[in-house]
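Please, structure for the following, as tokens.
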Amino acid sequence: MNEEETVIWQGSPSQWTNFGAYVFWLVVTAAIVAAYFFTAAGPLVLLALAVPVLALFIRWLQTRYHVYEITTQRIRTRAGILSRHTTELELYRVRDYALVEPFWLRLVGRGHLVLETADRSNEQVVLRAVPRVAWLKDQVRTHTERMRQARGVRDLEINSP
């Protein structure tokens, strides 16, 4: 195994995954602004705007700081704003691939890559709302096969009668 590890792709989930939350908090913001104009509570009502603004900002940050990195040997996932959690999956452990392309994500050229693995602690890895998902699946598959050959790994399936 003399191959040097290089990065194939790195990215974050699309902010489109937060569309429902964004719409909800924008409706709440509109309700707070309407309450300001139609009630006698005055400027104190505008203090309530801090809640949706903060919620939207935190949601945006959580998605922005969820990073996928696919190299020629592994998949690394880092998530967290203040505290960070990193997981790694060796490519030779990937058993199966699936593409999930919901209509609303296909409209913006995104999809989910679902990987079934032989790793007991991480049996399924989902790369959510990533661009060019079919190309990414092909890259993972190609490098998975290379890593299996380099390590001499074979996947054994046993069917019981």
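The mean pLDDT is 92. The first strand starts at residue 7 and ends at 11.
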